[in-house]
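Message: Just now I want nothing more than another pair of eyes on a protein record. I am handing you a single protein, as its sequence and its fold in token form. As I understand it, each token names a local backbone shape. Take your time, and here it is.
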Amino acid sequence: IASIVPYKDGTLWIGTYKGLNYATPTVFESYDKNQDENLRSVVALANSFDSQMLVATYDGLLFFDTLSKIHLTLEKLKPDWRISNEQIMSLGVDNKGIWVGYRGSGLEFLPFKQPKNVLSWRTDSIRKLSSNSVSSILTTQDGQKLIGTHGGGLNIVSKSLPTKVHHIGNDRVI
């Protein structure tokens, strides 16, 4: 299991390397590469708009409608939006946009209102990260983003302030 996200209705959505699953107290269903080749390796999940879940796979980003059970790629649903690559490791959504953590390529923020104005954090950019492998994204109650990295500890990022780095144990936040 790579990711578990509780949905608004109490359903648990579970991402595995074999596909996307959901569970209630009485139902367990699976969606895998037999329904769509893009669902072969689900690595991260996040609640999104209305009835949609964001699903990150080794092949990119999908929007999964929890009511119709239909999923569309980012390119089909939001043709103006671009992510830097398909090696997504983590996801986060807030009221202003989508946060995408990559395996080896840092962190990106795609704003809902101006999706072409992507903000990036990397070890070699103006917006710094301590590691380019982002394994987890969490939004605190006050809106800060806690970014767990592989090999670089915990980063606290802001769109306007310098990144704060906190080293925990062996720095391998997974």
Remarks:
- The mean pLDDT is 84.
- Helices lie at 74-77.
- The first helix runs from residue 74 to 77.
- Residues 154 and 166 are 5 Å apart (CA to CA).
